[in-house]
Amino acid sequence: MMIFSLFCFAVSAAEKSTIPPAFVDLEQVMPTLEVELRYFSEDNFVGERIPGYNKPKAILSKKAAAALARVQDDLLEFGLGLKVYDAYRPQRAVDFFVRWAQDLKDTRMKQHYYPQVQKKDLFSHGYIAAKSGHSRGSTVDVTLVSLMGGKPSELDMGTTWDYFSIKSWPANLALTAQQRANRMLLQQVMLRQGFTFLEEEWWHFTLKDEPFSEQYFDFVIE
Ligand SMILES: C[C@@H](N)C(=O)N[C@H](C)C(=O)O
Ligand SMILES: [Zn+2]
Questions:
Q1: Mean pLDDT on 1-23
Q2: Model confidence at 8, in pLDDT bands (50, 70, 90)?
Q3: Domain map of the chain by residue range?
Q4: Which residue puts its alpha carbon closest to atom 6 of ligand 1?
Q5: Residue 214 annotated to the active site
Q6: Is the pTM of this model over 0.90?
Q7: Is residue 162 a known part of a binding site?
Q8: How far apart are CA 136 and CA 123, in angstroms?
Q9: Does domain 22-207 have CATH number 2.60.40.290?
Q10: Dist. CA 213–CA 222, nearest whole Å
Q11: Phi-psi region of 109 (alpha: psi -120 to 50; beta: other; left: phi over 0)
């Protein structure tokens, strides 16, 4: 009986940690990539680790990962690189965001993440989606880093990642020339390799010819 239980445990652990064959851990294929998976931490708009993020791994479809690797190659020539904040997002994480949004009293991260938008408007204003491209596995949240000097340092994009505000719209004009140039550079290198952008968030890009355009995945990030 005990051996049988151990066998069942081993099988279920193995099942949980399996990434589907069409997906890949970005750090395995992009050695110079910076990754800070914020939904694995408490530093995000909710204020706690998000269900489905059991490891700080950035996973994408192999097709999107190949396109992102080409972006990285283009940037490396200029001493720049990419930093990823979020990639594949399990549907259970999205469902958790939906439940969180219904509790209007929980605004513990408002000051840092959405000071100018009411919590009740975050979905309707396009900052969070109930059906997210991230769950299709070919959407990624990225910024640019300078690799010149010691530690990679983020370029100034005018706002931080997941700052839900009109100021984060890529086309917002109330920025310095340098901030606008940084956003446009990020957008251009991503577009050149086949990604499209989101009007409300300078950091959010989806592969145009995504391989799973109708499928929303829910495997846990292990
Ligand atoms: C929540 C934010 N990081 C994001 O990804 N927003 C878009 C709209 C999404 O949820 O797909
Ligand atoms: Zn995103």
A1: 58
A2: very low
A3: 22-207
A4: 128
A5: no
A6: yes
A7: no
A8: 18
A9: no
A10: 23
A11: alpha
